[in-house]
Amino acid sequence: MPTGKIIDLVHLSQPTHLPGTRPMPGDSDKGYGIIKDDAGPEVYFSHELVEGLHGFDDLRRGQQLEYTLDEPFLRAASVRSVAAVAARPLRPAT
């Protein structure tokens, strides 16, 4: 599954005159985003394709995503956030 970073997010229900504001999860926000993969072109995705509890509302610019490509178009068929790798606990020296 290809991965890439979000380079643009557009929340259609959020007013454009409030820079830096964050939509509240659960508002059924609508919008779209653009993913940029180092190995490929920019890929468009719509809000309803994002998997997760709050889906589109949880996404931020620069976030790493996994996606499937809807061939032959440059749009995603599914999008999900890449899970962070859990840190291993340190053990005391013996």
Task: Explain the overall architecture.
The protein is mostly beta strands. It has one domain (3-16, 28-81): OB fold (Dihydrolipoamide Acetyltransferase, E2P) (Beta Barrel). Helices cover 0% and strands 36% of the residues. The protein is built from no helices and five strands. It has strands spanning 3-11, 31-36, 42-46, 64-70, 75-81. The protein has a five-stranded antiparallel sheet with strand order 3-2-1-4-5, with no helix packed on it. It is globular. The mean pLDDT is 78.
In short:
The protein is mainly beta and 94 residues long. It is built from no helices and five strands.
Keywords for this entry:
94 residues; mainly beta; OB fold (Dihydrolipoamide Acetyltransferase, E2P); single chain; 5-stranded antiparallel β-sheet
Summarize the SSE layout with pairings.
Elements: E1 3-11, E2 31-36, E3 42-46, E4 64-70, E5 75-81
Antiparallel strand pairs: 1-2, 1-4, 2-3, 4-5
